Amino acid sequence: MNKKFNINIVLLLIISLAMSGCIRKLNLYKEDEDDIPRQDLINKTEFMYPFGDETINKKVEITIHLKTDRLIGYLSTEIPALKYNKEWLLLMTQDDCRQSAFSYTWAAINGKPLSYNYFYDLAHLQNDDFPSDCYSLGKTLGSTDGTEIEPGIRREVRFSFGTTVAAGWNAMNALTWVQKGFTKNDFRFSQKDMLVWGNLQEMTNYGVAIAFHDLNLAKEDRVEDKLLAQLRIDQNIIREKLNNRTCKMLAEPNGEKEYVKAAIQDEQISTICVQSGGIKLYPFKEIGDLKKVLIERSFHEPPKESTLRALDIMKPFILEKLKYDKKEREAISIGIHNTDTGWINFFEWLNDTYGKDGDDSVWFTSQEEYYEYYYYRLHSKPKIETVDTNTQKLTLKLDGEEYFYYPSVTVNIMGLRMEDIESIESNEDVTGLSYANYENGIMLNIDCRKYLAEHAENFVKRYEANPTNASAKADANYFVNMLKDSDKKTELKKRAE
After folding, report:
1. Residue 257 belongs to what domain range?
2. pLDDT, position 185
3. Same domain as 227, residue 257
C-alpha cells in the first residue's frame, strides 16, 4: 500500500513539474510580448511629390508619323467632357478630417490592409503593424484610361477623392503608438480624433485632393473677416506640411454661409462645394467658368442605429441618375463623413460595376481635379496640322491657374486610326502619354506633371526596399505605367518587375 502510495506521489510530482514548466513558458512568452518596445512615432512619408515646384504653363507638342501607304482626310480635335472619355462623373469629398479617410477610403482604393473595427496610420503601415482583424480585398479599385499597356491588359486609373483638412487643430500632429508583434489588445488602433499629417502626405502622393472645412474658431467668431484671416493662417500650415501644396477648395461646413463668403474673398480658393444655394454640374453641358461657382453636393449616409449599408442607399441613387442620357445627366457629387466596411463595399461595387472590372464608364475623382480638367477644356484648344504627307503635329497649350496640380487632359483626334500610325513622339513637357482607338478616331491621354518620372522612381525604390510586398510592387508598376514610353520608363519597368 505504501509502495503504491509512493508511486502515486512521484507521478503527481512529475505531472506538477511538467505543468509548471508549461506555465513558465507561457509566462515567459507573455513577458516577451510585454517586453516588445512601444514606439510613439511621428507619421512622415519617405517622399512627397514636389508640389511647390510644379509649373503652371505647359506646351504640348505631339508628332504623329503615319505609315507610308496611308492617306488620311480632314482631322479635327476636341477635349471631351470627361477625362478618358468616361460616361458619367462621381465626385466625393470626405469631411471632418477623419482618420478613416486613410485607413478605410484610401486604403481600400489602393489595395492596402483593411480592418473591420479598427484604424491605423502611415507609421503602422510602414512598420507592418496592423489590427488583429485585418483583411484585404486582394485588388485595387478604379477604372482605366481606355488604353492598353500590352494586349489584353488595360492601364489602370485608381479612384480618387478629396478630404478636408483641419490644419488649425493640434490633433493632426498626434503621435502614433507602434508595437509590432504585440497581440494582447488592439488599443493602439483606436480611432484618433483626426487624420494626422503623415497620412495626408501619403494620400496626396496618390492624387487625393484637399479642402478646407471647419476652422478652429469659436462660434461667435465665425464671421467673414475672422474666417478669412484664419483661412490664411491655416493655408500657411498646409504649405509647410504638404511640400508647398496650396489648398484651393472649401467644403462648406454645417451649412454655415459665412464660410462661403470668406472663401469667395480668399484669392487662393477657386472652387467651393455647398449643401444648398449652388448649382448642379452637368458635365456634358458647358456653363462657362467655374471659378468661385458654388457646386452643390448631397449626403446619403445610413442613419445611426440603422442596419442599412452605404451600398443600400447609394446603389438605387446612382441607378436612378444613370437612367438619363449622358447629355442630360448631372454629376453625382457626394459628401461623406466616417467611412467603414459598408462604404468599402460600395466602392468595390463601383469598381465591379462601373470601373475596371465592370463597364469602365465612371470617372470617380475629386472636385479639385475636375475643376482643373474643366478649366483646361474651356481654355485650351488643341490644334492638329499637317507637317508633310506622312506627318501630323498636335499642339496644345495647358495654361493653368496658380496652384494647379493635375495638368492632364484627354484629346480626341477624329479621322485618324491607330492602324494609320507608324509612331508617336512628344516634347519634354509631356511626361505621361497613352493612346488608343476611340469611336471614329483616336484618344490621347496627356499628362504634364513635371516630376512624374521622379515620383514613379520613388515608388520603385520603395518596392526595391520591400521586394516581398505585393502592394508595393503594384504601386510601383501603377506609377511607372503612367509614364510615356522612354528609356527611363523601360529602366523603371525592369526594376519594378
Report:
1. 87-368
2. 97
3. yes
Per-residue model confidence (pLDDT) at position 189: 98
Residue 115 grid cell: 480592418
* Total-model pTM: 0.92
Q: In DSSP terms, which residues pair with 78 in a beta bridge?
A: 412
Close Cβ partners of 231 (under 8 Å, ≥ 6 residues apart)? 212, 215, 262, 263, 266, 269
The reply to whether 360 and 392 lie within a common domain is no
Same domain, 279 and 364: yes
Instruction: Compute the distance between CA of residue 372 and CA of residue 397 in angstroms, rounded to an integer.
Output: 14
Query: E-assigned strands of 124-197?
Result: 134-135, 142-150, 153-158, 162-165, 176-178
Nearest-angstrom CA–CA distance, 214 and 126: 30
Residue 71 pLDDT: 84
Question: 400 with 422, same domain?
Answer: yes
C-alpha cell at 299: 449626403
Cα separation of 302 and 484, whole Å? 43
Q: Which residues does the chain have with pLDDT short of 70?
A: 1-32
| pLDDT for the residue 286 | 81
Report the first-to-last Cα separation within the chain, whole angstroms: 77
Q: What is the dihedral of CA 207, 209, 210, 213, to 10 degrees?
A: -150
The answer to whether residue 373 is domain-embedded is no
Residue 468: partners with Cβ closer than 8 Å, 6 or more residues away = none
Q: Look at residue 16 and tell me if it is in a domain.
A: no
Read off the pLDDT of residues 226-244 as tens digits, 9 standing for 90 and up.
999 999 999 999 999 999 9
Distance (Å, whole) CA 113 – CA 103: 8
The count of structural domains within the chain is: 3
Segment holding 433, helix H or strand E: strand 432-438
| Structural domain ending residue among the three candidates 313, 340, 368 | 368
112 and 162 share a domain?
Answer: yes
Query: Of 427, 494, 428, nearest to 457 (Cα)?
Result: 494
Domain boundary among 348, 368, 388: 368
Residue 351 and residue 357 in contact, taking contact as beta carbons nearer than 8 Å: yes
Q: Using the structure block, give the residue that is written with the C-alpha cell 507619421.
A: 43
- Rounded CA separation 10/189 (Å): 49
Neighbouring-strand partners of residue 273: 251, 295
- The pLDDT value given to residue 7: 47
